[in-house]
Amino acid sequence: MEPPAGPPAIEGKRAANARRHFAAVREIYDKGVAIEVISKSLRMDRKAVRKYAHARSVEDLLAPPRPSRRMLQPWAEYLNMRWQEGCTDSGRLFREIQQRGYRGSNRSVRRWLEPLRSTEAPTPKRSETPTVRQVVGWLTRHPGNLTSSQRLRLKRILNRCPELADLRRHIEGFATMMTNLQGRLLPRWMEAAQASELPPLRNFASNLSKDLDAVTAGLTLPYSSGMVEGHVNRVKFLKRQGYGRANFDLLRRRILLTP
């Protein structure tokens, strides 16, 4: 039975240099040569020579410390996203996640990024401008259903556009009424919407006032017209099956007899 395969070897320019230095140092160190002599002979820093000489294997030097990776795990998705966007500055990434609650050190962030640096660096790219449809979806979707990337992009848009930030607050208020059946709050919401500087939002609030009782009932009662709409769609389906050739009597019989 073959032993289980270990983790894949780390490749890249940094890994190749580390293996070359490790082999050169260990070849001389195993002969009993002092670290200071090896440092002068190979023209390497004494601390680096000591690190290579005392390591069990070069893979131990390439692998980042596990504790720091566990500490950074809540921010792993954000760091990977920023790396793919072209941000490779560990100091900048450290400050960004520090603002999001990270309490570790900058050194841990540098170590966490070392495996990524051993691969080809990402090409900096411009963030794609979202479409109107995407932004509308982010505004109207439940915040819990947005990915971290979508939340970050939406936050940037709202910071640049106070009008959209104001619109989002009104959307959240209306969504809360719909979810919690709080129709009694509708007049207050309409008053705030009509006082906003967004003409489409004011028009929407004005149109709600034309049938206020029905809208209030829809936001208060647990009933809906879903079953009625289902029967309407069924009737339309049966009618289309006749290709316009069935008269009312035949359509009536099909509606009554078709389960």
Structure description:
There is one protein chain. This protein is mainly α. It folds into 4 domains: 50 residues; 52 residues, no CATH class; 87 residues, no CATH class; 32 residues. It has 16 helices and no strands. Helix 2 crosses helix 3 and helix 10 packs across helix 11. The longest helix has 19 residues. The N terminus is likely disordered.
Structural key phrases:
disordered N terminus, 259 residues, single chain, 16 helices
Blueprint (SSEs and pairs):
Blueprint: H1 13-29, H2 35-42, H3 46-54, H4 58-62, H5 66-72, H6 76-84, H7 90-98, H8 106-117, H9 132-140, H10 148-160, H11 162-180, H12 186-194, H13 199-209, H14 212-218, H15 226-241, H16 248-257
Helix pairs in contact: 2-3, 7-8, 10-11, 11-12, 12-13
Q: Share of helix among residues?
A: 55-70%
Shape: elongated
- Rg result: 32 Å
Helix-strand category: mainly alpha
- Number of structurally distinct domains: 4
Put simply, the count of helices is 16
* End-to-end separation: 61 Å
Largest sheet: none
* Poorly predicted runs: 1-7
